[in-house]
From TrEMBL:
Ca(2+) 2 binds at D211. Residues 1-30 form the signal peptide. It comes from Panicum hallii var. hallii. This is Peptidase metallopeptidase domain-containing protein. It comes from the Eukaryota.
Amino acid sequence: MASATSPLLVLLAAMAVAALVVAPVSSAAALPSGFADIASKIPNPWSAFKNLTGCHFGEEQQGLAKLKDYLSHFGYLPESPGFNDMFDADLEEAIKVYQRNFGLNITGAMDAPTVAQMMAPRCGVADVINGTSSMGTGAASQAHGRNLYSYFPGAPRWPRSKRSLRYAIAQTAATPIDRATLSRVFARAFARWAAATTLNFTEAASAEDADITIGFHAGDHGDGEAFDGPLGTLAHAFSPTDGRFHLDAAESWVATGDVSRASSAVAVDLESVAVHEIGHLLGLGHSSEPGAIMFPTITSRTRKVDLASDDVVGIQSLYGGNPNFKGVAPPATSSRDMDSGAGALSRPWSALVAVVAVAAGLAVAL
């Protein structure tokens, strides 16, 4: 019997090895969580960056001008009336700063993890302001135990005499979400920051009575920061004491229910984005800590609403701590991590294990 099944086992083993070679799981191990969704065929203003994978200094390739425009928008390159498609020294340096901010390997080239991170939906607030990075310095800082939160240049904040801030949900005509639901979502989002600080927030009856105004807008809406459609720039907010908070009306916002089970593949959790943008309204810049609320990007169908210790230390350094604050909850598994597609990509050996298991089962059965 053993001699009869040995050729089959050899064949099945060969099939298992072939499956591992054919499946793209080995490269996925080096990519950020959620890359399957970021790099899918879902329309995204930055999807074309996939074509730049592997591009490096000295090359000329179509699409590099758009990459330079992206990096300029988020502060990594100076503004220009017209970028070219040459991978020059300035672009290489800009990519290195970007990689440092996001804790990636500092190669200066468009390697796969860098491309994936750049295609992720994100906040419209720049990471580098007036030539100074508003983020921490990535993995190196973490290794030395530094906090990775940051502030806007000059560390603007609401005055010490103003501990009660009022907000108004002022422009809602561009969103189908009803006012009552919006009120509940934003109340929860503000409450998360109030719990950790000496600040408190109440909804005002009108924009005229408010310190902070919230609105949904499409495309160019008059503040110099035009929105770009689904899964590009999700929202932006201004530093204290400006008080403006704008959301892209083109997004498939989810305000109730489990966003990870949303029917739309481009669904974005409204409360998650709101908590992040409120951090900007209060004076926080972006953080290099992936688990922090103030990390610049979030994938679709993901919920991320709990302040991390990095967020808490940063905001309490500005406004002091709430004596009733019970501390940061242990990190929870995000809805994106629980997604079966992302989970499969994060386990590069899973395909081989599955094939080998099937092979073993067939051998036993025979």
